[in-house]
Amino acid sequence: MLRTLTRSLRTSAFRLNKNPLIHENGLYYGKFTKEEYEKAKAYVTTQYEKLEKDIKGTEHVREKVGKMPQFPSRAPAKRDITNLSDFFSEMIKTTGHIPLSAYMRQCLTHPEFGYYTTRNPLDATGGDFITSPEISSVFGEMIGIWLYSVWSSQGSPQSIRIVEFGPGKGTLMHDVVVVFNKFVQKSKVPVDIEVVLVEASHILRKEQWSLLCNESTPYETTQDGFNKSVSKWGNKVTWVDTEKDILEAPNTANYVLAHEFFDALPIKSFTKTEHGWREHVVEHTPSVINTQPKLEGASTGEENVAEDLKTEFHLTLSPKETPSSSIPTLSPRYRDLPEGSRIEVCADAEFYLSYICKLVNDYNKGAGAALIIDYGPANEIPSNSLRGIYKHKFVSPFYKPGEVDLSIDVDFENLKLLASPQVDVYGPTEQGDWLHEIGVGYRFDQLIKKANSMANKESIYESYLRLTSKDEKGMGKIYKFMGLLPKHSQRPVGFGVGESLARVNCHALVPKHNVRFASNLFNDQTPAPPKLPKEQQEEFEKLQKMANSQAAIDEYNRQIEETGAASSDFASSEGQTDVGLQTQYFKTIPEFEGEVNPETGEIGGPKQDPLRHNDWSFNGRVTDF
């Protein structure tokens, strides 16, 4: 009892004293003795040192800072990032591997180092690739004819927008608007035509403005951040950063173009393993600069690493699930694929396609259309198509990030499946077939007839082959056209309406190709002979018999011109949409409006287009891809 009372009194006295007693060495013992304190201190110190050794070895943890990777590590506070390689290196050091889609997006659109935001990829001297509109203006003319045909079949709406996603230099839009405006003027139907260009690169915007607009026309920036001007034909021109900036206009019909747009969208790549779908991710290439350990159990995609190009990054297959690993399970297309299958999925393509379908359906009277032109398989799943394009050659997609264009095969089958519930889908149709059905042969025949030398005839013919041939050097097979129209629309020309229109016979004008347009030896790699309406079949058969003489060639060209004038009887009849369109084309389409060579009198490109100015051959832009 006495002991308890004494302890209680001592405790109460301690509580009454705000400051505990201080030992002469300055330590606050409280209720502990010095011996107890020293023992506890020694134990804590020993455990702390043991923990440091277990984590980092025998050296003190502060002595190791900066000598080995941190998890996660921090980039130096003020390190200068001068290119995308530095950017990716720091990102991977900080967060580990990155998704392929993130790598592609930064390579193409990074505001400081991205491929499309820092250069003109179609520059005449330093560009890395060439597109169909740059090969010949005839390509854009055919698309202009198609748009006019669809517009006419939909009741000729008096307010329309021609919208292009990824317009490049503006060459395609230039050629399309030239033809469309002339057709409209000929039809005398009043129509307000606005041009909308979805383009994030201000470098390319200036290129487009210089081609589409006069120098005297101001290039204005609105309060919303858009750029506006007026085309040389009087059309309102608007530039927007993204599709979300396109204003809704229910009283305006939208006609959308997307030429080589979907092939540059970021993708995710997956392989089906025994443990399910695994994502391909981007890591450092260990033999070059990688100081991080490789992902445990990961396999390197050696097909994408070119040692001679000194790539700093590579694809590797993640051994574990990533946040995106469930994406392939969402589509029945991938459900039954065998183990080892590799696929590419483009979520951005699905998003853009959905918005394009919305634009097609926006007009409250059921008019509108979209034309998608790109390369890729018609009914297969792309598997390993990512490639880099540098100075007209294919290179590793990891070579010089930000300085190399990246491209993939478009999954047309997936686009068709996604668009079908919203719009009528036509195609994909191979480019060579589509162009021939529109009438590209007639137009090239006109150009060849106007050419003043055999060399020019040969050059024009080579342009024709480049656009339509289905061999390895041509674009006629690998490129596809897909049309989107509102539900229950009339089937548009170009997608299987009747028989194809005439193929060009211009190779008969060039001796080295021999006279073959009357031959039965044509195949998929060689344009087929022309097909005429039944009423002219007898005359055509007579023409075939004279094919080996120059007189036959002259007679054929005369017959072609007469065909355009005589076809008017078929223009108004049902089932003859293509003939009527061709008749309109021959009556209204102008000859190529370019500059005249003062020495030879030959026609060349317009001054506004540096690539085609003084290009008397019409083919100066063709180069190996």
CATH superfamily heading of the domain at 132-264 and 350-376 and 411-588: Vaccinia Virus protein VP39
Compute the separation of the termini in Å: 103 Å
Q: Looking across the biggest beta sheet, what order are the strands in?
A: 4-5-6-3-2-7-13-18-17
- Looking at the structure, the CATH topology of the domain at 132-264 and 350-376 and 411-588 is Rossmann fold
Binned, the helix content reads 25-40%
Number of strands: 18
What is the CATH architecture term of the domain at 132-264 and 350-376 and 411-588?
3-Layer(aba) Sandwich
Shape: elongated
Summarize model confidence as the mean pLDDT.
Answer: 73
Radius of gyration: 34 Å
Output the structural class: alpha+beta
Number of helices: 18
Give your account of this protein's structure.
- With 625 residues, this protein is an alpha+beta fold.
- It has a domain at 132-264 and 350-376 and 411-588: Vaccinia Virus protein VP39 (Rossmann fold, 3-Layer(aba) Sandwich), CATH 3.40.50.
- Helices cover 34% and strands 15% of the residues.
- It has helices at 2-16, 34-56, 61-64, 84-95, 100-109, 132-135, 137-153, 171-187, 202-212, 347-362, 412-419, 431-438, 440-450, 454-468, 537-545, 550-566, 568-571, 577-588; strands spanning 98-99, 159-165, 192-198, 220-221, 227-230, 236-240, 253-259, 268-273, 276-284, 299-300, 313-317, 342-345, 369-375, 387-390, 393-395, 405-407, 424-430, 479-485.
- Strand 5 (227-230) and strand 6 (236-240) form a beta hairpin.
- The model is unreliable at 1-18, 25-29, 59-70, 287-308, 497-530, 544-553, 563-597 and 599-625 (pLDDT under 50).
